[in-house]
Write a sequence for this structure.
């Protein structure tokens, strides 16, 4: 089994498209204003957005995008006026993370974990 597709809701798909294009995702399906699909520049995963009239309540959605050159990526996004809630920081779970939100308030975590994503020292067998 392989997780290869995630779809998130949006009140304004057009605005969300510009945000995710700025992050570096590649638009491959455009059925605006109700649906769009991206592919990640690395790997085989796809990511889509669909139009909704109301966003989910509570804490919402958290989306993680990994890049080996996290600090350079964040620096380039800052130059494009992307606002971060937290700049890159080393975490106790051995990941380096930066936090921001998309236009719909979904939590975006840009990170680098390397081998520790699937094989942390505390992994169970």
């Amino acid at each position: 089994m392989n997780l290869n597709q995630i779809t998130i809701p949006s009140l304004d798909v057009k605005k969300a498209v510009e945000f995710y294009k700025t992050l570096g995702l590649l638009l491959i399906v455009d059925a605006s204003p109700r649906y769009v699909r991206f592919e990640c520049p690395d790997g085989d995963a796809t990511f889509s957005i669909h139009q909704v009239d109301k966003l989910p309540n509570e804490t919402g959605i958290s989306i993680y995008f990994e890049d080996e050159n996290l600090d350079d990526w964040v620096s380039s996004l800052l130059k494009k006026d992307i606002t971060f809630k937290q700049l890159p920081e080393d975490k106790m779970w051995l990941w380096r993370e930066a936090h921001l939100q998309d236009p719909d308030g979904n939590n975006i975590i840009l990170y680098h974990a390397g081998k520790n994503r699937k094989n942390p020292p505390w992994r169970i067998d």
Remarks:
- The chain has one domain: 5-52+60-114.
- The mean pLDDT is 94.
- The radius of gyration is 15 Å.
- The beta strands are 5-10, 26-31, 35-39, 46-51, 62-66, 86-90, 96-101, 107-112.
